Amino acid sequence: MSSSLSSAEPRGSRPKRFLSPASIMIYSALLVAAIYYLIPLYVMIMTSLKGMPEIRLGNIFSPPVEVTFQPWATAWNSACTGLYCEGIKVGFFNSMKILVPSVILSIIIASVNGYALSNWRFKGSELFFTALIFGAFIPYQVMLYPLVIITRQLGIFGTLTGVVVIHTIFGMPILTLLFRNYFVSLPPELFKAARVDGAGFWRIFLQIMLPMSLPIFVVAVILQVTGIWNDFLFGVIFAGTKNFPMTVQLNNIVNSTQGVKEYNVNMAATILTGAVPLLVYFFSGKYFVRGIAAGAVKG
Amino acid sequence: MTKLHSVSIKDLSLNFGSISVLKNLNIEVADGEFLVLLGPSGCGKSTLLNCIAGLLDISDGQIFIKGKNVTWEEPKDRGIGMVFQSYALYPQMTVEKNLSFGLRVAGLPAAEIQNRIAHAAEILQIGPLLQRKPAELSGGQRQRVAIGRALVRDVDVFLFDEPLSNLDAKLRSELRVEIKRLHHKLANTMIYVTHDQIEALTLADRIAVMKGGLIQQLDDPLTIYNKPRNLFVASFIGSPAMNFLKGEIAGTNGSRVFRVADLDISLAGYEAQQPLASGHTVIFGFRPEHIAISDQPGPAGRSCEAVVDLDEPMGADSLVWLKVAGKAISVRVDSGRRYQPGEKVFLTFNPAVASLFDAVTENRL
């Protein structure tokens, strides 16, 4: 009865070490990167919770001795953005008014575009697609002045409609690419089967393709929401002073030259402005990564 | 009286840009016939099926279904139902909704739709599956639903695009039998694309062997198997594959022989389609089962000695590899007796069931 189960003989599943040198390296690198990116956010939150006297002491890393939410209230309700002192809430609602129709409109048009370009190839459809994608590589600055003239001629310059149209147009290349690549990846037999069953362009799109494309719609919504919310350029040019989005209002608060700089209000306003994309990233991380991967050109 | 043709294809050509995919095809499919389009991948068989279905626009020619010119018709107006390799079931719909989709599009009354679904479900035995989604079905069940979707359309012509290729071997042979049974029951015209010769040989009334956008031979399965029209058909059909020896015609009129190296094989009994000229370079083809193996020399002029190279037991029979005139050939024998490498045996050829091909044109002589 010798104990033949000697520990030197390898047998069964291979033992796993809890922390190998390689994983220690990876985790420490990740930790450093995480701290590096979190420190500014930490400083902002701490500063926004302090009163001005405490800020003047200069200890930006120290937590507030006396926590106050007054700067947040000021930023939201009564901070001065240029001539008006109604806080950044005006910008928030303006941004919402720009965001919602732009996202819906651009996604509806781009999904139909992508569907047509992948399943209903017409003569010159590849050329059309190439031209559309090429549009994504032209710097915005080149197109700004012509677009100003065009929107002025159409009578929508400096209006909500104007900025929505501009966002819809500039969302087209990347969204169409996104949807086309997704629809190309669906089995072509489904489309053929639906045609044999007698379904037409819209019926195939609405009843066969749409129910299968929820993931790509989520990705498109994330891309558009973050992109349009963060936009500054189009908002400041095309929206008109009444409709300045939140980013523009934030700039006006932070860069106002009169009086003392209220750092705590500025920090609160900045966090409020960044909250929407931040929350979107937070709750949709998986889809967002998939969206970036899906944006890669294939097929 | 001419027989009514269910599908007829006249001078059909298809070009993608400068690439010619289908070249001037002419096929007449009789009413109730089971036609199999067989060929290696890229031969244009699926493309041809898509043209018949109306899913691809053709470059030239005409397509008639039930005597009606459907060349410019939409797929739904052609009276066809189609079954795809990947099943192509609508994933978000239940089996019942999948079956009824086309009927609902066509605006049929609900009672009629119910009747047709019940009928199809009974024939295909998918009644208990009607409320399930395709993801909850096995491969065989999915393909049955896909056939059902063609069935409820109550069409004249069924088109199958490699319907069994995604299934495992056992299921494939089961469903193959079911499709054949279905054809007997419905007596519809069926056009069936496959690259699997067993499917083709077992199912077809006629097989069209295709290569490079051309039909190489259109005949019943036995003719295709026994009298292949050219070297391609001969080598494509049959598993294990036909053996080929390259040599020349020799001997005098009336007693022609096939000569390779120092071996003469009498061609007495071979039905040549044209007179065989002495000195003509030819390829002599014979199937592994058309050759007899024995320990004794066979009849003179048709027999030769050979050395066993390898023995491959395959269950019911074995494949014995031997060297003849420096070339490896295979012979199918009963698996009762094992052959050892290096063993000396005698082979007897049967020219009546052999094939002769011109070495240059590769056509049957």
Automatic annotation (TrEMBL), chain A:
<keyword id="KW-1133">Transmembrane helix</keyword>
<feature type="transmembrane region" description="Helical">
    <location>
        <begin position="156"/>
        <end position="179"/>
    </location>
</feature>
<feature type="transmembrane region" description="Helical">
    <location>
        <begin position="98"/>
        <end position="116"/>
    </location>
</feature>
<feature type="transmembrane region" description="Helical">
    <location>
        <begin position="265"/>
        <end position="283"/>
    </location>
</feature>
<keyword id="KW-0812">Transmembrane</keyword>
<feature type="domain" description="ABC transmembrane type-1">
    <location>
        <begin position="92"/>
        <end position="284"/>
    </location>
</feature>
<dbReference type="Pfam" id="PF00528">
    <property type="entry name" value="BPD_transp_1"/>
</dbReference>
<keyword id="KW-0813">Transport</keyword>
<feature type="transmembrane region" description="Helical">
    <location>
        <begin position="21"/>
        <end position="45"/>
    </location>
</feature>
<dbReference type="GO" id="GO:0005886">
    <property type="term" value="C:plasma membrane"/>
</dbReference>
<comment type="similarity">
    <text>Belongs to the binding-protein-dependent transport system permease family.</text>
</comment>
<keyword id="KW-0472">Membrane</keyword>
<protein>
    <submittedName>
        <fullName>Glucose/mannose transport system permease protein</fullName>
    </submittedName>
</protein>
<dbReference type="InterPro" id="IPR035906">
    <property type="entry name" value="MetI-like_sf"/>
</dbReference>
<dbReference type="GO" id="GO:0055085">
    <property type="term" value="P:transmembrane transport"/>
</dbReference>
<feature type="transmembrane region" description="Helical">
    <location>
        <begin position="128"/>
        <end position="150"/>
    </location>
</feature>
<dbReference type="InterPro" id="IPR000515">
    <property type="entry name" value="MetI-like"/>
</dbReference>
